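debug: dumping io for the single-chain case to check the tokenizer round-trip. Nothing else runs in this session.
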Amino acid sequence: MSSSSLCTQTETANDEMIAILLQTNYDEQDLPSLKRIKLDVSSDEALAMALQEGYRSEYEHLEFVDGERQSSDSELACRLDREQQKGGHCSTEKNMVAMIPPPSALTRAGFGKQIERQATLPEDLIERVKPAVVNCSVGKEVLLYLKNVDGCQGQLLAGRVLDEIMKCCMTPPAPSRGNKDGIVVEWHRDGNSKTPWHTGIRVLHEVVQQLLNYMRQDPLLLHRLPTLRRLDRSWNDTEVLVSTPGCELGRHHDAQPVGSLLFIFCAGLSCRSLAWPGNNEESRQLESGDVMVLDGTMTAHAVPEVIAGTSPFTDCSWLSQRRLSVLVREIPPCSSVSQSRVS
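debug: decoded output
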């Protein structure tokens, strides 16, 4: 079966199948080999066994004919066997862990083509990566860009978001080309909602805090943006938005009250981003792993283009042809009591 036909099947799959594919961390090209790979699911043992049996009966008739991958698997098996013999009673699982490259080397070594669930992220992730910070702020209008904040082109960020989506028993948004979908705040569905910023999912808040701590280490940046000094911050629920080439978002201001920072995490396809701090146009290409920080109400912004063929996750059925943007909004200090009830 060709990869193009498999991709077509994936696009038309129902929500349940998409959720299962993503939960098990496998792309459609890997399905034929599921019967000999240990499933990685966070549910109970019975569910794991049921899924494994289901995949075996569904795909047992397919032949695993990728010669290059077969050769790679054979070499890996031989290497593990040699390592196990050298290490006496060391288990194969331990040897495999020892062979996994550090996160910073994943994409360089060609291991970064998939998105795998991440239950947690390192507490010192940002401190280790030390992402570049570009300050485009004008006056009190905050506009910051941080490059490749997880050191893996967004692989860890997307994996963390995917894990939280599955834990919340939600379906990862997976729109077809030319469309967009997402886990959005209630305000978009009901402007009179008593819980306007509620989405039901909270993720990447710890990374936001790491980024703030990291930026506070720059005295020049603190001098230009004293608002970063404030420590008493809290955060609303997270929005998870997925878009595709052909989608665009016109110039707009956010509805949330002035004075709250907005962190936009990007993964998958790149996009062309526009912002107008002080009414001066700032154009950037946001790539997978980048973060944009602004006051979305004070500063107008737009996304005129999602750029096809730019995702680093070329083998991932979720984000190879889609852009993931994860929005974390601050609860304004002046309304922290009332806002906390709806987050």
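debug: round-trip ok. DSSP finds eleven helices and eleven strands in the chain.
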